Amino acid sequence: MSWSQIAAADVQPQRWKNAGGWTRELLAWPHASDWLLRISVADIEQDGPFSAFDGVQRWIAVLQGPGIRLYEYELFPGDEPLSFDGALAPDCSLIDGPTRDFNLMHRRGHGRLELLTAAQPLPAGPADWLALFSAEGGTLRHGCRAMRLAPQSLAWCEQPAEQPLQFEGQGAAWWLRWCRTDVEARP
């Protein structure tokens, strides 16, 4: 078991098809072309619709900037991520200028994903894949190991050892825990 990590600052941004912003893809797992989980940081520069992703559950959280309106919700830095059906392709409007956002996508029917605040140690539970996203950076502690994370970083691990997990840092941070749908049937 080993941890991998990547920071948004180390990823080349890709322009959106509608030219409304930029995406820095941190991870498409397990394969870039056939992902079950996709995690990115996006810069929204103008109002417009989100792309449609059938069969995908999405989460979005504002990391920097004044905020956004999505459906009837207003999201600001520090708010918990908003979850919505990716097939709906909602309109997004900027509240008072560009934002930078955390984006998470999960293909429904392919395992179970939990998104939990990292303000507390991760509660015990099964995981085939585990990650931590930190908006402002900090230190991830897994058992006796400590790993420093830069701002807007993702650290992840496949088949993590069942040891205490804790995050020490400022700002928004979330645990992402994924397990196969048949996890209860495994020994």
Structural Rg: 16 Å
CATH-level-4 superfamily name of the largest domain: Jelly Rolls
Q: Spatial order of the strands in the main sheet?
A: 2-3-4-11-6-9
**Helical residue percent?**
under 10%
Secondary-structure element pattern, one letter each:
EEEEEEEEEEEEEEEEEE
Low-confidence stretches: 183-187
- Rounded mean pLDDT is 92
Count of separate DSSP helical elements: 0
What is the fold's blueprint, element by element?
Layout: E1 3-7, E2 14-15, E3 21-29, E4 37-44, E5 48-49, E6 56-64, E7 68-70, E8 73-75, E9 82-85, E10 91-94, E11 99-107, E12 112-117, E13 129-134, E14 138-142, E15 145-149, E16 153-158, E17 165-169, E18 173-179
Antiparallel strand pairs: 1-16, 2-3, 3-4, 4-11, 5-10, 6-9, 6-11, 7-8, 7-10, 12-18, 13-16, 13-18, 14-15, 14-17
